[in-house]
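DM between two lab members

TW: hey, do you still have the AraC-type DNA-binding protein entry open?
JB: yeah, one sec
JB: this one, 302 aa:
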Amino acid sequence: MNKKESIAEFHTRHGREYPRTGQFNVYNRGEFSCDSTSLPPNRRDFYKISMITAGTGILSYADKAIKIDKPSITFFNPLIPYSWEPTSKDQAGYFCLFTEDFISQNLKSESLSQFSLFKAGGDHLFFPAKESVELLKGVFENMFLEIRSGYAHKYELLRSYVQIVMHEAMKIQPPNTFYQPFNASERISTLFLELLELQFPIDAPSQTLKLKTANEFALQLNIHTNTLNRALKESTGKTTTEWIAGRIVNEAKALLQFSNWDISEVAYSLGFEHPSNFIIFFKKQTGKTPLQLRKEFGSASV
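TW: and the structure you got?
JB:
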């Protein structure tokens, strides 16, 4: 898997210096070499909302790829690897970048908490109508004015502008013109593996895995479990369950060797309600009990 791209590396890729100021920045696409810079299918460590008002290109994420040839708006978060290939020189529009620090409980309100900006699965591309395009242009122009202002509460106002953009997108039906790229299985597999790896390492006994089954991963990725299994089997030779089990075993071995947590704490952090279930799982995968392996490592007592 490719290393996720930082916000500073994103600026460097476009030949720009990262301003390193604030939690939020907004840019004009026409002034950011969006016409000549391709984005590889990486995961980024920041959020991005991009509005294209002119220009064409191909946007790809998960198992979807779509030709952009009209005004559109996209929402991406650090969970989602995506790529962009410009196919014209007349790129215009806006985009804003922000970090996790910018996310407030108010921004991630109940009505927006399940929106695509905060999820790995779902629809992340929308085609606004003409009236909506004009409204969104005005919102982005207000972002430009506000980010340059000295207003003490400007980030609160910028969060409100982001909410307006999100609500406007929620009114729009997602596109139905997606086509399957030749490497759809690889895209699904990459997204799954990124999502799986995002849960590790486990740093404290109170930290527990949120996604533990093939069904839970498929639901998060907004695809059928069979589709996920088929993609992984085709591109990696292993099933979803095999990947999950293997990663949990590797983490368990690390915790048994390098931590002094007792077996029940290790079991709980890895998503097992009862230590006995963890012991059965671990022995099935490794041929040894957790205690036997810990003794081999010469670690502290359980």
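TW: got it. The radius of gyration is 22 Å. The chain has ten helices and nine strands.
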